[in-house]
Amino acid sequence: MLIKKMLRDIKVNKIPFIAIFLMMFMANFIFSGITSEYHGLQSKFNRYIEETQLADGWVYGSLFEEDKIEEFKNDPSIQTAEGRILVPTTVSNHQKQSIDLYVKEEDTLSKFKVIEGVSYQKDIDGIWLDAQFAAANSYQLHDTITLEYQGIKLEKEIVGLGYHPEYIYSVDDGQMVPDHQNNGFALMSKAYFPYPMAYNQLLILGEGDLKTAVQDHFSQAIMLMQKDHPAYLMVSEEINQHKEIGILFVCAFLFIAALVTMTTLHRLLSSQRMQIGVLKSLGFNKRQLFIHYITHSTFVCFIGALSGFFLGYLALPPLLLNFMNEMYTIPDLKAQLLPYAWLLPLGCTLLCGVISFLICRKYLRGNAAKIINGNTNEKKYRPLPFSTLWQHLSFSSQWNGRDIFRNKLRSIMSILGVIGCVALLYGAFGLYTSMNHLTSWNMDTVQTYETKVTGDFSDEAYTQKIKGLMDGETIMESGVEIRQDQQSRSVTFTALESQHYLHLMKNEKEEIELMEGLAVSKNIADDLNLQIGDSLQWKLNGSDQWLTSTITAIIRTPLNQGITIKKEELKRLGIVYQPTSIIGHALDESLLESEFTTSIQNKEDLQAGLDTMMQASIMMCTVFVIAAVLLGSVILYNLGTLSYNERYYEMATLKVLGFSDSRIRRLMIQQNLWLSVIGIVLGLPVGYQFILVLLSTVQATIDMTVYIPISIYLFSILGTLLLSWAINRLLSRKVYHIDMVAALKANE
């Protein structure tokens, strides 16, 4: 009988129980979806780097001799070391397509993972090619590919296709999304490489102070630790970002669900005092009634949490992993639930049970007579604050003000619902405009060149020829190690011939003309607590000469974080300016000579990568907007219904006194609009902080500013007001159905 009564109660009070269901559903939907996505990413990533034995460190230099490597292996910190040759090549007749060719004897560290063909063997004459590059360019197993390096052609049969752990995330300078159409890697045996070359890279596996061990044996070499490698760093930052977003959303929805549960149970038990008294008088004991009323919310919570948990696991990860597959190359990437993740639905159910138990204690204490006689709509008079002020307001303002102050919990919950709605709308639109601004700012203000040609420009005549064709200028790009207060970091280094195509920006609009000293990107300056006028120690990769320069500018650069210097300043420091790229207008690629060119990057290629990032941000913004509308609708409708039921007696009295239905409707709408305005005022700062939290999880290589035009404020405010007004209009129609006789005779 009590089970039937419970189902009937839920049906009669379906709106608030639907609200509880949806909040629990969304909390578990987002939790299981995001956690299974990032846990699957983390699990597959860890398994992949373990399977391929990703190196603990990489040592870069110009010459690693066999005897020095064998001596290095005897260091107690080193378990093993493996030399290899990196040859930057291009595909013959396709100079825009660059291939990093690795020539080695053994493949024990950072191993090539074969998905088609034969595994790497040093006695096989052939080439093992990047599977994604092959797929993008229609290469098949046993096809022949011709690579070029400084005018020398190397023609090999493709004997294997696969992946490489160092290319989990791989982009050229200035790019954000991998371009598998034009960039890839390949592997071949040193025994069949026709040109004698010394190792220029060393892969190491070990423990302890690896940097010291490297410096002791190769003083001029540069070392990169695993945690700083883009393939490892980017995935780790991505996982942390998704963790923070998941926790933020889950906590918000669970908090709202707890508040909705409280108000729903208060309303249900208050309206059923007579039934509770009758049940007690018929012999139902306190324990049975506790179980009965606690079951109402826990049953709905359990169904909502369980369905959200399973549907979130099935529906959300495919959307997120589709973007992950565009950004990262990890084999067999799929969702995987966190261990003990199933405890969340049970925990949500337990939370609802505890809240219900605490509320039931208030309504179930006492005997049947006391409970029945305690049912009254009379409320103890409480003077309103600022009583003098209220006397000068209209009747409707006094009536609504009194109701707000005497029903604080309901009013606070309405404000919180509006805060959540406007914060999510503001965050969604603000994130979109910030991402869009990043793209336009980078393409139209910071990097204004159309084409970037990278290669060997030691030949002055050829360099001047290409500069003339492109109306361009040279730049020198490299890696550099900086040191400040016992902290060291490897960052990018750029030397500029001028600032005609690469602009140094103090902010989005103000450009800095660098004359002397160093310009440091803001992300690096913030991390190392650097200020203008500070001295900074730095040295170029491959050099053991530490230089000290004064920081004369801190710049905002969207994509490349590091230090920038002018060509004249570099010469004053005694460093030879060796151009690595030419930037300028587009040119006929057939005029380039292959022996001097390693890659060509057009503005359209970079724009395509940024567009991919925009698609991901649009998907996230869509989720935020849906969550905002759902949250606002559920909370406002639920609390509006609760407000209507609590004021039913008062509105019936007003109708008896001669108030028209339209005037009573205006009373209801006025109060809810007041609360909506308060929620909007408080929600805009919350939305701004929400955007800051989201942007704080963006990769450290990206400097994204918050860009929110006035239209975003208007969209967020008007969207929330429109949603509130529409729901209130819908609820206020109930005024027409007030039964004055039934309402005023209820106490009898």
Write the layout of secondary structure elements.
Blueprint: H1 2-12, H2 14-51, E1 57-64, H3 66-73, E2 78-91, E3 94-104, E4 113-117, E5 127-130, H4 131-136, E6 144-149, E7 152-163, E8 183-189, E9 199-206, H5 210-217, E10 222-225, H6 230-271, H7 273-281, H8 286-327, H9 343-364, H10 368-373, H11 387-390, H12 395-406, H13 408-446, E11 451-455, H14 460-470, E12 473-484, E13 487-496, E14 518-521, H15 522-528, E15 535-540, E16 547-555, E17 562-566, H16 567-572, E18 581-584, E19 597-602, H17 603-646, H18 648-656, H19 661-696, H20 710-732, H21 740-744
Parallel strand pairs: 3-8, 5-7, 13-17, 14-16
Antiparallel strand pairs: 1-9, 1-10, 2-3, 2-6, 2-9, 4-7, 5-8, 6-7, 11-18, 11-19, 12-13, 12-15, 12-18, 14-17, 15-16
Helix pairs in contact: 1-8, 2-6, 2-8, 2-17, 6-9, 6-13, 6-17, 8-9, 12-19, 13-17, 13-19, 13-20, 17-20, 19-20
Helix content: 40-55%
- Tally of extended strands? 19
How large is the count of helical segments? 21
Mean pLDDT: 82
Report the span from N to C terminus. Answer: 28 Å
Structural class determined from secondary elements: alpha+beta
Q: Give the strand order of the largest sheet, numbering strands 1, 2, ... along the chain.
A: 2-3-8-5-7-6
Proportion of residues in extended strands: 15-25%
Number of domains: 4
Q: Rg, please? A: 34 Å
Regions with little confidence, pLDDT below 50 for 5+ residues? none
Most strands sheet: 6 strands, mixed, barrel
Quaternary structure of the protein: single chain
Shape: elongated
